[in-house]
Specification:
Oligomer: single chain
Helix content: 25-40%
Distance between the termini: 73 Å
Order of helices and strands: HEHEHEHEEEHEEHHHHH
Structural class: alpha+beta
Strand order of the largest sheet: 1-2-6-3
Strand content: 5-15%
């Protein structure tokens, strides 16, 4: 099957960055999760696609990725269009699409395909869109023509230390990424937060996610904005307590978590005002 068919679908959806590799070259990195059970028998190809989400406008109290409609829905819709085209061309083929919940380590697989380098924050940094990207993949038993299968050496970022020095929770360092100290992860935790976690949310003023490690990265300077219409048209500059969260990246956690974070920030501002007026 010629790759031009898939390229045309992706380009029509304003997705212009993708590449492929042999499944056998990355199968040794399979993760032991439920998604691995959906890998097609006789898998031959992994097609990695990059979905840029940065609209060029910085949100007020949410991260850039959560300011656009839920990427799981948007990216999966696009990948399924590609999968449908594969099945039309090759009715006997077996194909599966993955977003986020993947049998493969997406960042490293994308780097293996030559789509970017791996940052100290664990994100893929592309030349065109920086690290403001979502990753998705198609695993199929079809072998494509008209494109070179990649086998790139996985490369790392500049190692400038900007993300580590500016990370508000100190989650990035020489010993690796400490997820429990990441502000983005803390904003997504359920239940009662520790005092230091509340203080971090209040100080940074974000109710969901964090972009600091990306915004300070020199490799993200001057990158292009997304052209994906659903991300552009569905952009929200801020989260307002009580708003409809259907179809947003934070819907899966439920309204209580993001409203808790908003209350932490609001109470902090009240306390600061009270102190300043004394």
């Amino acid at each position: 099957m010629n790759i031009e068919i898939i390229k045309a679908i992706l380009n029509a959806e304003m997705v212009d960055l993708f590449d492929i590799c042999h499944y056998g070259d990355v199968s040794g990195y399979l993760q032991n999760n439920a998604a691995s059970r959906r890998i097609p028998a006789g898998a031959a190809t992994v097609l990695m696609a990059v979905f840029p989400y940065n609209t060029g406008v910085k949100p007020e109290n949410i991260s850039r990725y959560s300011a656009v409609p839920d990427y799981h829905d948007v990216c999966m819709r696009i990948l399924k269009k590609c999968a449908a085209a594969i099945n039309i061309e090759r009715p006997d083929s077996n194909t599966a699409c993955f977003i986020d919940n993947s049998p493969l380590p997406e960042v490293y697989t994308a780097a293996f395909c030559g789509l970017g380098v791996v940052g100290d924050n664990g994100l893929l940094i592309t030349k065109k869109y920086g690290s403001y990207v979502f990753l998705g993949e198609i695993i199929t038993d079809v072998v494509f023509e008209g494109i070179e299968y990649k086998h790139e050496k996985i490369r790392e970022c500049l190692k400038c230390g900007a993300c580590a020095s500016q990370c508000p929770g100190g989650a990035i360092g020489d010993s690796g990424f400490k997820r429990k100290m990441c502000l983005s992860d803390i904003t997504q935790k359920k239940g009662e937060l520790e005092a230091d976690e509340k203080a971090l949310i209040a100080r940074c003023g974000t109710v969901w996610g964090c972009d600091i490690c990306q915004d300070v990265c020199p490799m993200n300077k001057g990158v292009q904005a997304t052209r994906i219409n659903e991300f552009i048209n569905g952009f929200r500059e801020r989260y307002l307590p009580g708003e409809d969260i259907t179809g947003r990246a934070y819907e899966w956690r439920g309204e209580k978590v993001i409203m808790r974070n908003a209350e932490i920030i609001a109470m902090s501002k009240i306390e600061e005002k009270s102190v300043s007026e004394k």
